[in-house]
Amino acid sequence: MSEILDMIQSYCPSGVEYKALGELGVFENIGVDKKTVDGEKLVTLLNYVDVYKHIYIDNTIPSMIVSAPDKKIRDCSCEQGDIFITPTSETPDDIGHAAVITETLVNTVYSYHIMRFRLFKKEMVTAFYIRYLFETFQVQSQIMKLSKGLTRFGLSKYDFAKIEIPVPPLEVQRKIVEVLDNFSELTAELTAELTARQKQYEYYRDNLLSFNNINRGGAK
């Protein structure tokens, strides 16, 4: 943490610059429906759940097969460095889950249930950095303020473009992403370990407290 603060002091002596996301890239939600139409090409669909459950997305993750016309296939591509966001939810505080495409997805389009944010200047470090920002209070609070709805809440692409974020120099972004990636990996390992321990506990609990294979006291 102190190293990052030192870097900020060195690279940003006058403070970190803030920019609206619309200054950094373009949002689109012209995606493809979950259906198959005769005469259209079959493609893989990147959907809401894929984005909701992952931080990084490669070709091993999307699996749903749908169809799409040629124009949609061109316009709804999923390229390396794209950031995908969940734009709607039943509650405002569940909007804004984000995932980064780590490699261009082959013959894949995105669902109209998600939003694509494509940076004007493609830089993977910046994509990863922005993805982590979507988890922060400063971005989530803006999402809460901009969200609209009654039974289901959401933000338009114009609303997402208004969100302001701190944009430090690339060297600072890289260090922040490195630290947060390490913590994310550690968290995943701890979660897997806790899950294994929970299953182990349940196994021993059920066996130690089960007397079905032992004669009950007083049985003749």
Please, how many domains?
Answer: 2
**Rg (CA only):** 23 Å
| Share of helical residues | 40-55%
- Portion of residues in beta strands equals 15-25%
At the first level of CATH, what is the class of the largest domain?
Alpha Beta
CATH topology category name of the largest domain = Adenine-n6-DNA-methyltransferase TaqI, Chain A, domain 2
Helical segment count: 8
Work out the number of β strands.
13
Low-confidence stretches: none
Return the structural class.
Answer: alpha+beta
Cα end-to-end separation: 70 Å
Q: Give a quick account of the main beta sheet: strands, pairing sense, barrel closure.
A: 5 strands, mixed
Query: What is the architecture of the largest domain at the second tier of CATH?
Result: Alpha-Beta Complex
Overall mean pLDDT stands at 89
Shape: globular
Strand order, biggest sheet? 2-10-6-8-4
List the helices and strands and how they pair.
Blueprint: H1 2-11, E1 18-20, H2 21-24, E2 25-28, E3 41-46, H3 48-53, E4 56-57, E5 64-68, H4 70-75, E6 83-85, E7 88-89, E8 98-101, E9 108-110, E10 115-119, H5 124-133, H6 137-146, E11 148-149, E12 153-154, H7 157-162, E13 164-166, H8 170-208
Task: Throw out a few tags for this protein.
13 strands, single chain, alpha+beta, 2 domains, 5-stranded mixed sheet, 3-stranded mixed sheet, 220 residues, Adenine-n6-DNA-methyltransferase TaqI, Chain A, domain 2, 8 helices
